[in-house]
Structure formats: structure tokens, C-alpha cells
Amino acid sequence: VYFYSAPENFNEEMLRGKRVIVTGASSGIGEQMAYHLARMGAHVLVTARTEAKLQKVVERCRELGAASARFVSGSMEDTAFAEEVVKEAENTWGGLDMLILNHIGHSYFNYFDGDVDHIRKLLETNFLSYVAMTVTALPMLKESEGNIVVVSSVAGKAPGPFAAPYSATKFALDGFFSSLRHEFIIENVNVSITLCILGYIDTDNAMQAVSHAIKVAPSPKEECALEIIRSGALRQHELHYPPGILGTAGSLRYGHKIWHKDKLLSLSWPQTPSS
Ligand SMILES: NC(=O)C1=CN([C@@H]2O[C@H](COP(=O)(O)OP(=O)(O)OC[C@H]3O[C@@H](n4cnc5c(N)ncnc54)[C@H](OP(=O)(O)O)[C@@H]3O)[C@@H](O)[C@H]2O)C=CC1
Ligand SMILES: C[C@H](CCC(=O)NCCS(=O)(=O)O)[C@H]1CC[C@H]2[C@@H]3C(=O)C[C@@H]4C[C@H](O)CC[C@]4(C)[C@H]3CC[C@]12C
Predict the structure, then answer these.
(1) How many other CB atoms sit within 10 Å of the CB of residue 103?
(2) Exactly one of 166, 200, 241, 254 is catalytic; which is it?
(3) What is the pLDDT of residues 224-252, one digit of tens each?
């Protein structure tokens, strides 16, 4: 009963004055989350590799009304950097209310090319850095009874073709964070974990990677970003965006047609015994 005492309705005032870290915030969904949080009056700490982009995001956050806005630049390939970002929040704010884990390292949308080193690097960036930040942030999040928000994908629930390395990292997130949530419930740790299962979103990098192959319209990044913040603040276990993206039996709604080298592949996704 204690754990489920989550607020029922979202109100943007819930974020006013909250201290929030957003990773992967120099572009795409992360950037849009930073702007929503700023508009809601939160303190934001954004991070990614590209300093020039982060500088602009921080300036815009200040214009939008953030209680404060700052950035730390560096690569999440290195777990020491991941920990450093959380320490920066501790030194600046003396605490933390929400940790939004959103960044991904570069990958490809194609047949698996056999590159094991790529998978190792991607696991470090997309998975291990999420774990490292969580471990470092946990004492502060326990203190504030705060939120961990993990941005994942339908590729982390329903595997499809051409995303083997990426999909592996997203499944790892589900395994780790869903297990950790159980432990928090058993131990009455009042830190929520929200796993966000996203479909195709209209960020520049995603569209560049797959618009030749997937012809369905992507969902808007601005709305997606707001839904992620909302679900985190409401302490929901999972967000599925766009709504119903995972149909019955966990199948992917739009995954029936993919183009590859000018050839249309019609797929039953995922393959089921009856298909
Ligand atoms: N867009 C989509 O269709 C979907 C997206 N998602 C998920 O949503 C999240 C955001 O995706 P999206 O907005 O499209 O991603 P983008 O490619 O737009 O943004 C990725 C962010 O991660 C940063 N980044 C890349 N490499 C590193 C690194 N080594 N260390 C630190 N930061 C890094 C990038 O900045 P910089 O280059 O400056 O480091 C950028 O800020 C991801 O978790 C993704 O898996 C899930 C399903 C679909
Ligand atoms: C291949 C995309 C990754 C692009 C990338 O490398 N981004 C980082 C660039 S940076 O290093 O310069 O910052 C994939 C990112 C999101 C994937 C999509 C997704 O997760 C939802 C669907 C899942 C399904 O299994 C396949 C189709 C998806 C639309 C999937 C396609 C690949 C991504 C766009």
C-alpha cells in the first residue's frame, strides 16, 4: 500500500523546484525533455558529448524559466564520467529528485555485421552507464523519495530485425531495472523506476537511420518527451508511447513492413508459432 501511494493526476507544478538530471539532452527527445522541465520551473542538469549543443540547450532552458540550468559534457562510454555527472548534481544541489537516463551511443539499422567490439561499447554506453549513474544517485534519490526514468524502446520488448546490438542493450535495461524495482518493493525503498517503451519517434538521428526503411509516420518528440516526464512524476512502472505500441502478445504494431535495399520485407513481428 505504501509503495503504490503514487499520485493519480499529473500537474506540471509537481516539477517546480525539482532537481533533475537529463542524459542525452543535446538533441532529440532528451533536448525536448529539458525544455519541458525548464518550462515547469525545475532545476536541470543536462549532459551529452557535444559542448556547443549543450550550451545552446542550457541557454534555451534559462529563457523558458528553469529554476537553474547547467551542463556537463563527456562520453558515457566511460562509467567514471557517468558517476561524475551525478557528483556534479550532488555538489551543486546537495540532492537529486529525478534521474532521466536517455542517451544512446551510435549504432546502425542493418543486418548484424559480427562486430563484437561494437556490442561491448554499446553495452557500456547504453546499459552500464545507466547502472553506474543509478548506483551513485541512489542515496540522494532515497533521501528525496525520487524517480528513476529509463528510456527504452519496443526493441527492448519485441525484437525485430536490423537492430541486434541496440536491441540487446535495451533488453538488458529491462532485465536490470525491472528486477531492481522488485527489490525496492520488497525493501520499502520509495524510489520509483519508470521504464519507457517507445515506438518510432521523429528525432533527426532516428529518421536519418530508418526513414528509407520504415514508411509509417513517426510520433512527435515533443509529446513523447512530455509523456516521459509525466509517467516518471506519476511513478508509473512502464510507459508505452505511442499508446498501444505493443499490441496483444507483445507484438509490434507497425512492424509488418520494412524496406531493405529497395526490397519490401513483409514480416510477422515477432514470429509466433502460428505464423
Ligand atoms: N527516436 C526513436 O525513434 C526512438 C528512440 N528511443 C530511445 O529514446 C532515447 C533518445 O533517442 P533520440 O532522441 O532519438 O536520440 P538522439 O540520437 O537524438 O540523441 C542521442 C543523445 O545521446 C547523446 N550521446 C550519443 N553518444 C553519447 C555518448 N557516447 N555519451 C554521452 N552521450 C551520448 C547525443 O549527444 P552527443 O552526440 O552530443 O553526445 C544525444 O544527446 C534513446 O534512449 C533511444 O533508444 C526509443 C525508441 C525509438
Ligand atoms: C539506429 C537508430 C540509432 C541511431 C543512432 O545511432 N543514434 C545516436 C546518434 S549519436 O551517437 O550521434 O548521438 C535507432 C534508435 C531508435 C531505434 C528505433 C527504435 O528504437 C524503435 C523501433 C524498434 C524496432 O525494433 C526497429 C525500428 C525502430 C523504429 C528502431 C529503428 C532504429 C533506431 C532508429
Answers:
(1) 23
(2) 166
(3) 999 999 999 999 999 999 998 887 666 66
Name the percent of the chain lying above pLDDT 70: 91
Residue 221 has phi, psi (to 5 degrees) of -65, -30
CA 124 – CA 44 distance, rounded (Å):
24
Nearest alpha carbon to residue 56 among 98, 29, 27:
27
Question: Rounded to the nearest 10 degrees, how much is the dihedral formed by the CA atoms of 134, 181, 220, 227?
Answer: -100
Which residue, judged by its Cα, is nearest atom 18 of ligand 1?
28
CA distances from 216 to 12, 219, 239, 275 (A): 31, 9, 21, 23
- Taking the C-alpha atoms of residue 2 and residue 185, their distance in angstroms, rounded to an integer, is 9
- Which of 129, 183, 136 lies closest to 151, judged by CA? 129
Which is nearest to 28 in space by CA: 170, 149, 208?
208
130 is catalytic: no
Ligand 2 pocket (Cβ < 6 Å) reads 104-107, 109, 153-155, 160, 163, 166, 199-200, 205-206, 209-210, 214
Give Cα separations from 129 to 76, 97, 268 (angstroms).
Answer: 6, 19, 34
pTM, whole model, 2 decimals? 0.95
Q: What is the tens place of the pLDDT at every residue in 73-123?
A: 999 999 999 999 999 999 999 999 999 999 999 999 999 999 999 999 999
Counts of helices then strands in the chain (DSSP H, E): 8, 9
Reported ipTM: the value is 0.97
User: What interhelical angle do 51-64 and 28-39 show, nearest 10?
Assistant: 30
Side-chain half-sphere of 66: how many Cα atoms within 13 Å?
23
Please report the beta strands in 83-146, taking only residues with DSSP state E, as ranges in sequence order. Answer: 98-101
